[in-house]
């Protein structure tokens, strides 16, 4: 993918993904120019309208008709690069305070309005950019634009509000500082960019926030948050000209400002360094990082292609995985305007020779610098970029993000401009930049060192016997006139979907949803399965081994030949019990042919099993001693009886004893057409989709009766508390849980779900967030979830906080649950939650991926494909008394299991 399509750089391992990157950063210098005419004609692409208002605000409107949804992105061209000396988190703190109110819009009003529109809003701060994001039903676009116009005009930022928000943002700092991947990333920045604004990321520190005042943040807003320092990107199913007129009315009178001077950069030569960071991950990860040129370099397009080539599954780096020497490899390029971080990463299990593996990675990169890269991989990378350019149209929110990064970070006119630059890149260009910038003698080496965990410690203190805390209330708040219409609208939205649902003669279910927003076809498949019930006794872990062996091609095409065939059509494919294909429409037939070959005739070769088995077994055994796994295990053991299938556990011993015959037998049991659903969505007719799927999957047959995949109904769990030590964390991750009898199809599901939204479904406006974050500042975020399956369910509340606040926060949760049982939800609060749930219906259709996953989820639980619409009608009809009754019947606040991971809780 193009670098601005990567929202977070990842180092991938077979059993764990270690996030070491920050959102792709770049610094874009804004040059003030004379205002262009207030309205301009659409560009050559009639779906795009651009304008620059007289006050300097740049506007880009991209029409996308996938769903009646709009995504807005207000991009301020300022971030951590331009924060005051000694206050690295100022831009990030201001981002938080933008949700605490502006003149004419209080924090409570903003929270309630955000929930009313579906609760899909967010923000992020980077080096040169701060973004504010809304995804809303198209009929509510005026509401989102009103919010952003008021926030651009001014900020309240009182000392009292900042004091509350400071607690929450300090918990976010503690959360990231508890992540080994983040600590690794921060160390890389400090080594590669010492003495420059890139030396630190946008997060900030507790000491800097303690000396920051509300007035400081208000002043930062006044300096930088100006229309002539902002780009408004709007993507969705709108009339571009009418929308531009609304934007002029709301934003046109906001005055431009003279902008301060930008930060200066003076890079020093990189001094080679080696460092180690303790980790609670199961595997080792080594990173070799270099400083590359930034976005403004003429060499950057060639560097993008180089990174794609080095990440190819046909390149030698991934060959280390295929040879069983590593669990995962990655080469990533994280761009900023003046310089970038490029790094190779390799993950491996305990017992492997890490020094030898790093030496081999260095040899591979040195060979590239010396001899260049294969020409066919360069062409394959460029074809993949073309396919990605089409795929980005398949999500309204993602398309807004891609456009925002293209114009605000890259300084381009559009994402297509990057593709055009890449199309011009030659093999000679790639080899030249490899020679010039792959400087292994000026690299930084970092190691994430697994430390495991001490034994979990049980506590006899029942969760329900805590002190009493005075709770806040979700009080009714009068809304501005421009938001009242949304509050009063409780109509069930009409779905835009019309899936064609058929079953092939072999039992395979096919669901087809045509769309024409891009020239792609996307295939998603799911085989109903459950390893806990389908693995033979003593064969625990065979599912893990099968998943790893799926990477080794088919009976007709070995691993490299299969990947080459995918590259020839620019396809993105994944095999397994959950499988997928993304391909240009012209190559739909060939793509499905390869997918079917992979699913029905996987090679699962003995030589590959022999190579990878020791690392997989070591990794599983190491996983079993990590804090994260022990916390998950403690929860399962507290919720379910000893003979429950969910308590089965793979170990290094069970995995190392597996044979190819075990894998083949398990594959034959799981992979059956009569347990499979395939969703096809894209630029294809239902007739053509059925023809192609039947052609390549129609001969697939099943033998014997269907295997058991449902778990038994468990007895109600007892209260328990377990603390899992984790020395890598500075705060505790807390999970409160209970098992539930109601399954997904039970009548009480909808009342429980609606009540859960009251507690934890809409950020600031929910009861848990009001009490734990907004009023007390105890947590950065808190979420609750109702998980109901085919035979049983669970209820969870999850948060992270300082150890001394664990018990206090848990007491607030328990009291909130009891209040739901004792008092009906006030009608105004219930109506607000209903409005949010209703607006989530169109939001759930705003990306091809969401549409397909929704269909697959419904088939998994034997629900009708139009269940969201049916559910919306049930939500509208549900009363406060029914919500109260459902919570009183099923939720057991005094039986919660509390699992903590981190320092000893208090």
UniProtKB/TrEMBL annotation:
Residues 215-384, 658-836 form the Peptidase M16 C-terminal domain. The keyword NAD does not apply. The keyword tRNA processing does not apply. Pfam families: Peptidase_M16 (PF00675), Peptidase_M16_C (PF05193). It comes from Rhizomicrobium electricum. Belongs to the peptidase M16 family. InterPro entries: Metalloenz_LuxS/M16, MPP/UQCRC_Complex, Pept_M16_N, Peptidase_M16_C. Keywords: Hydrolase, Metalloprotease, Protease. Residues 58-205 form the Peptidase M16 N-terminal domain. This is Pitrilysin family protein.
